[in-house]
Amino acid sequence: MGEQPIFTTRAHVFQIDPSTKKNWVPASKQAVTVSYFYDSTRNSYRIISVDGSKVIINSTITPNMNFTKTSQKFGQWADSRANTVFGLGFASEQQLSKFAEKFQEVKEAAKLAREKSQENMETSSEHSQESGRETPSANQASSINGTDDEKISYGPENEVLKSENDRLKSVIEQSKKWETELQALKESNARLADALQEANSNAESWKSEVTKCQVENNQLRNKISELELQCKEVNVERERNAQLSIRIQELEADLQDKQLELEDLRKQAEIIPQLMAECESITAKLKAAELTNRNLNEQMKQLHGEINDSEQKQKNMKTELKKFMDVLDGKIDELHEVRQGISKLGIDN
What's the pTM? Predict the structure, then answer.
């Protein structure tokens, strides 16, 4: 069956900056398709993403890889073979969770596939060792049933067979290392060839899909023409088509409005840092105004206290002034009586 997709989603693709190893560099201008592929011939799993004709992700999953969620909508994993770190930004936390769960499933499957291949290799090596051991056992049986001279020569021959067996074991272990390195080279070449083949196949599939859609569109147009000729309610169909056209125009207008709103939102997003700075300055001014207001309130309280004290003093002064006026009125009356007495004395004199 070859390589087949088993899971597909959409995300923004990033790669770690090779110079700083800290900053993220966008690998795609917009959200692209990211898919898990299973190769039944190699029994391997890959994550592949293509932006147009450019392959931006071609990562073979190994049991040592780990997918890490760094935020609610962003995750990353390191690929030692590609010598980079890939990052994916999703539209929702649910999409990120699904991708992480699939990564864990594929990782476990790759681990089982590696263990199975190692068991097969160990089994084949054990078979080869057992086949190598059959010869000395036969020689041993012949030496036991043979003459005394053959029994005497049995010891050195057994030592030679043991050394030969050890040498075969070392050769088998070395061949395993060579097979691993050869498999890595084959996988590297296969990845490049598959990426090129996949890009070409995707282009051909897209062309075939476009052609198929055009054929289907032409068939639908012909069918509509036949139905219009055969249908008796032509006016109803025309009116319905007119309504659909109006609806399409309305949808197109709504789409343009949404695009304009999106552009406005993007512009507003660019102004957000300035607004944040202004908000911080306004917050500082507000805090200063609040502090000034508190000082003014304290001063107002003090002034109210002073006004109350002054009012109380004015009341006391009015009371004392009234008492003084009463005393003064009494003195004036006494002076008036003295004057009248003096006047009477002057008249009498």
Answer: 0.38
